[in-house]
Amino acid sequence: MERTLVLVKPDGVQRGLIGETIARLERRGLKLVGLKLMRMTPELSAKHYAEHQGKPFYKGLISFITSGPIVAMVWEGREAVTVVRSQMGATDPLKALPGTIRGDLALDIGMNVIHGSDSPARAQTEISIFFRPDELVEYERTGDRWIAE
Ligand code: DAT
Ligand code: MG
After folding, report:
1. Residue 149's pLDDT is what?
2. Among 70, 87, 97, 109, which residue has the most ligand 1 atoms within 8 Å of its CB, making it the best to mutate?
């Protein structure tokens, strides 16, 4: 089953949006298989955001993402990457549709509450940056047969 990495960014943690974010993904039917509260180090953030190195917003992004605790999660489900991306909304919250996490809960591109991997390949890489294999839990939920046939 497909897995994706989700972060509640420092703004989301400070604003009390951990539960709200989890609730939305949980209610959608995705399954939580990994979860930790942590502070990203500069080294970890450079690894995670390597693709953005050199861009004008890179320095600000690194200082923001390391500015306070984040919640790192792994969510599992059919097309989990696409499902989470659509539920997150556009990168710029002003362009994100109502009903999405960013469209409902954020206003600024630099403080957009949530990160989600943008492809299955990136998801695998990002999950391995944040979690050891033994930190991910495989289990069955009794409700799963009411979510997918
Ligand atoms: P996403 O988080 O939607 O995958 P991204 O990978 O392009 O977006 O960028 C990573 C983060 O960097 C994004 O969540 C917020 C920040 N960012 C992106 N573009 C930016 C910009 N033009 N100005 C300021 N911050 C930006
Ligand atoms: Mg991205």
Report:
1. 87
2. 109
